[in-house]
Amino acid sequence: MPPDPEAGTVLLVDDAPDNLRVIYTILHENGYTVRVAPDGFAALRSVRRQRPDVILLDALMPGMDGFETCRQLKEDIDTRDIPVIFLTGLNDSESIVHGFQLGGVDYVTKPVLAEELLARVAAHMQTARLLADTRGAIDSTGHAMAAFDEHYAIHWATPQAHRLLQPLMDANDRLPLPLRQWLQSASDRPYALWHDGERLQFSQIEPGLLQIQRHTALPEPEALARALQLTEREAQVLYWVILGKTNREAGEILAISPRTVNKHLEHVFEKLGVETRTAAASKALGALRG
């Protein structure tokens, strides 16, 4: 039967032609799109060229074996969340344990039983899709999220967080040094980082979990004050309003009461000839661009 796009894509990695033929046939006949790689090097190239939904990976292969292949997949932020199911010998408990230690999610023993193989692939395919949907849903709220480990390596991220963080990671695939230093300081204030004309604001929701908000490059309060003839405090209040802060949040940042923030905001509205926070932000940015 032809592959069903809804069924998903499996990357099958094995150096034994007989194993490839048997497993390929089982998966293909059940609607999966199957890509084949004969060794670890080819598997890594295939994954980077086109991401599969699930990887079936033979543990013992010449050259780069399945363990090293899995290790490299799990070290790469682009591929670490792809479910890896190891293919092992019937009594190879050592390989099974080692595979789990490297980040494998399951294993299938050889010779392969069709029903077992299909059940395991389907289960992990569904889990991966639910996880992807959840990440997309979080991104749609405007709050990109990323989880990091004790070494500041990202092990989970929504698609938007992944796109924002990828250019910032250091040579060891960890969060950038300034961000690590902020996390180590245990500050309860957000941390701002500028990259490619965007202001990225980081907040630690809980230990090991970051929220990232992206803002287009904004002028500092001094520029707002000069361009719009505002007082220093009015410009500071407007600056944080443009960044989406509530009166209470702006007051905490500026060390003034929400009531005082509101008073300054009323003056800003009057000077700009607007009635809402959104209109004030829009007019301010429009005036500066013009």
Automatic annotation (TrEMBL):
The modification 4-aspartylphosphate is found at D58. This is DNA-binding response regulator. GO terms for biological process: regulation of DNA-templated transcription. One of its GO terms (molecular function) is transcription cis-regulatory region binding. Coiled coil: none annotated. Keywords: DNA-binding, Phosphoprotein, Transcription, Transcription regulation, Two-component regulatory system. InterPro entries: CheY-like_superfamily, Sig_transdc_resp-reg_C-effctor, Sig_transdc_resp-reg_receiver, Tscrpt_reg_LuxR_C, WalR-like, WH-like_DNA-bd_sf. Residues 9-125 form the Response regulatory domain. One of its GO terms (cellular component) is protein-DNA complex. Signal peptide: none annotated. Residues 223-288 form the HTH luxR-type domain. It comes from the Bacteria.
